[in-house]
Amino acid sequence: MTRSKAEDVSNEFSFISSISNLEDENRLLRESLASMEKELSKFRRNPLISCEIKDIVNDSALIRLPNGNEFMVEISSECECLKPGDFVLSEQKNLTVVRKIPSSKKFDVERFVIIEKPSITFNNVGGLSDQVREIKEVIELPLIKPDLFRQVGISPPKGVLLYGPPGTGKTLLAKAVANSTNATFIEIVGSELVQKFIGEGAKQIKEIFTLAREKAPSIIFIDEIDAIAATRIEIGTSGEREVQRTFMQLLAELDGFDPLDNVKIIGCTNRKDILDPAIVRPGRLDRLIFVALPDSESRRKIFKIHSKGMKLTLSKSDLDKCVKDMEGFSGAEIRAVVTEAGYFAIRDERFEVSPKDIFSAVKKVKSEEERELLDMFG
After folding, report:
1. Neighbours of 246 (CB within 10 A)
2. Is the pTM value of this prediction over 0.90?
3. What span, in angstroms and rounded, lies between the C-alpha atoms of 78 and 63?
4. Which of 84, 179, 214, 253 is an S-S bond match for 209, by CB 3.0 to 4.6 Å?
């Protein structure tokens, strides 16, 4: 009889324990189901569209969509206080404003910033002593010694335009001066500023200059500036008109009410002849620095800079002949000669580069250049 009672108690305890385990398992399953239903509802929800507030009228908002269309829409009661210029998310169906986007920047302009300053120094620039002196006077000196200009009573130039044939060292000069000033280096390619929709290129220019002021001292380097600063024409396609709007915004930033102070601009182009006169007039990029093809002594310096890490033994006569054979070469082509010579040595499984490798490389680069000219001019 006693054993039977003990068995009953044990069975009852097991039953209660089983019920408890089942309830816990059921609770976990309900939680998992609720979580999955919540995720499923997210997948079914229509995506929101980003737009800009143009004006607030009573409880409604005039918004501008990315395609340029504008609509007067309602504002959700849960939305925080809005003002013109804010970016918000709206429902796609009726465009009701749902909530404000914390960031007011439409473009990711941070991608233009090189956080670590360029490693190029003026020691890496060969044969451009006059150009180095000029760019130091215009860019480096005002950033390092601004009091000097205040004492003299003049305002330093806002920037420079580097122009000349391709591969002559224009970009090297810009990076070297950024290195020497410890400035934030913002590098832009002119074609990146040509946007699809009306007004986007101009807005991007504005945000880049705002970013440059925030991170001052800074240098804005616009490569291929002719992509947006070519001579304006009265009649053109909608795309050409948009490029002109972007260009006018660039001019406005150079002449704007907000002073540039510790922000300097370096423009770079191979086609100065097609630039609009407005960009190079006094008060804008009025310092023009021509970067020509290197002369004999400059070619010698450039060759030594690029070949300093090589195991290379060239006699003075061999070096003189090499420099003479490279007449008309740009700095980039001289670098290509050094690279090709290294490849000739690698193919023969050698670690030392011979004079023969150098002369063969000169001949190869020269033949490639002649082939390009034939393809270009027929």
Report:
1. 22
2. no
3. 18
4. 253
Of 227, 284, 280, give the one whose Cα is nearest residue 253: 284
> Are 121 and 252 contained in the same domain?
yes
Domain that holds residue 322: 296-377
Alpha-carbon gap, residue 309 to 302, rounded angstroms? 13
Q: Are residues 135 and 85 in the same domain?
A: no
Give the whole-angstrom CA distance, residue 88 versus residue 102: 9
Q: Say if residues 267 and 160 touch (Cβ distance below 8 Å).
A: yes
State the average pLDDT for the chain: 80
pLDDT value for 106: 47
Identify which of 195, 201, 205, 207 has the alpha carbon closest to the alpha carbon of residue 85. Answer: 207
Same domain, 265 and 231: yes
Judgement on whether residues 244 and 143 belong to the same structural domain of the protein: yes
In degrees, to the nearest 5, what angle opens at C-alpha 306 toward C-alphas 305 and 308? 65
Cβ neighbours of residue 242 closer than 8 Å, sequence gap 6 or more: 194, 195, 198, 201
Residue 224 has pLDDT above 80, yes or no: yes
pLDDT (mean) for 105-109: 55
Tens-digit pLDDT profile for residues 51-72: 888 888 888 888 888 777 888 9
Say whether 211 sits in a helix, a strand or coil.
helix
